[in-house]
Target: Aspartyl/glutamyl-tRNA(Asn/Gln) amidotransferase subunit A
Amino acid sequence: MRDVAARLNTVISWVPEQFGVDPDVASGPLSGLRIGVKDNIEVGGVRSTCGSEYFADRVASADAACVTALKKAGGVITSTLNLAEFAVGVTSQNSASGGPVNPWAADRVPGGSSGGSGVAVAAGIVDVSLGTDTGGSIRLPAACCGVTGLRPSVGVLDMTGIFPVSADFDTVGPLARSAALVRETFAVLAGADSAPLRSGSLRIALPWPFVTEDVDPAVRDAVVGAADLLRDLGHSVVDVPVPHSESAQDVVYTLIYSDLAKTHAERLRDEPSRFQSATRERILLGLSISDGQVTAARRHRDVFRAATAELFDDVDVVLTPAMPADVPLLGGGDAVVAQARRMGQLTYPWSLHDGPTLALPVGVHPSGMPVGAQLTAAHGAEATLFALAEQFQEHTDWHRRRPPVRVDV
Model:
């Protein structure tokens, strides 16, 4: 097993020489919390590498809007965190800084693309981290590392100062050990009330199958167990399908990869060898997508969103697994498109939805790795997710588990 120092070297991109707290915000809602920021989110005066050789010496001129909000609330930015190059990849192994590993097991991936953000929270390096999520990049690290992470509703948070993947799908959001701390951080980012909302009796859909019937039995048991607890807590759990979910992943891939190719076409033409191989592979896939395929994918996106809006007229929350299988071993990883598709099989459909999804731990696989689930609600209904997740976490301790490699505080 790699030692702690080796792990931290592949998690943290930058640590300031000294920390400071603005006395004007010393009593803010996030006062004194250690916050790590994914390294595609700009921190003024600090290298902002996006995990890429292309940006190895790039220094941000100003804070991203989300960083400004956290600082004003008293949060202390203690580090920038490693990621998959240009936030593309579900294992985070395609980084110019080297791939971070999972603190639960050194031979497992931490998820991606916000791999460092998941590891830093799980290992106790920070209290809160920021990640970005286009196809699952907050939810997958949360699930793999046994923490809680929010993909907010599309368009509710300011993305200024964040390097883009696909404008139609990009979001920024917090990861923390508990849903309560995720809620408090999101409230700062959104300029909203952070007071907890108590959940009344909710109608929760547990669609089975969701996208695929090929789900690891241990994952299914953990998610069903979560549903059973929610039922015991007074909620209604119903089997309601998510329309068009079986084709959603291909639709999202088409639109994201097309945008990705446009963003990086010049770099691919001029200096292709500077990309990590897995990143280059995805950009090349994007170049093969035609305008007609993009137009068709946009139509499918609109159909999916309309059907999902109707679904949330009938139910309050949808409960699904975060991944269909156990946390993958290192090796192959992002160079194998099939493995990447498998990991993101259940997160990509909710990227096509414009509402929020919260990932949280709901069990332990026989391998010893965390099992994560997703709670999804209508656009703007983050408060409903927080209320339900906080109630769940009051009656479980999955989010309190600590990995064998951690920084004790």
Observations:
- The first strand starts at residue 12 and ends at 14.
